[in-house]
Amino acid sequence: MIGFIVVIFVVEVANSLFSHSLNAYGIVPRTTGGLIGIPLSPLLHGGFLHVQSNAVGLLALGGLAAISSGKRFPLVLVTITLVGGMGVWLVGRSATHVGASGLVFGFFGYLLVKGLVDRSILSVLVAIVVAGVFGLAILSGILPTRGYVSWEGHLCGLVAGGLVAMMMRKQRGSGRQGSNPGPGM
Description:
The chain has 185 residues and is an all-alpha fold. The protein has a single domain, classed as Rhomboid-like fold. Helices cover 63% and strands 0% of the residues. It contains seven helices and no strands. α4 crosses α5, α4 crosses α7 and α5 runs parallel beside α7. The radius of gyration is 18 Å and the shape is globular. Keywords: Membrane, Transmembrane, Transmembrane helix. It holds the Pfam family Rhomboid.
């Protein structure tokens, strides 16, 4: 996650040098050109304060998601990015949507639903702590309260994270090689 955050800061430096013209490569809903924004949007931001606020959530929630998903974390990250981004492209208002907050909300949704579907003590505890610490901020972020905030990106990220957790839930007993044939077999 730290490497990803560094990349976002580097991209913001470059974007600042070009008067944020790179933001044209964000998600523009229901346009062919806006499709490129689905994978690029999390790298693009409206300024250093925007990057900084997303970096905190990425470090906390993304770090927990990375720890809890292990080797599958790159798949979690990419799937939340693509599914959440496609959701914004499909239902977002006519604007250019940029920022990694969809990922932050996606990691929140992933950790919350992972606790529900995995039902391991650790996953449930993480879900409870995440809900307690970030729940109110997440709830307020999915409401259309400020015109310059992509609440659609937040909501679609949240839904994408929940879907990813359901898709990747641990299959009870799936670690076994076939069925247990019993003694002597």
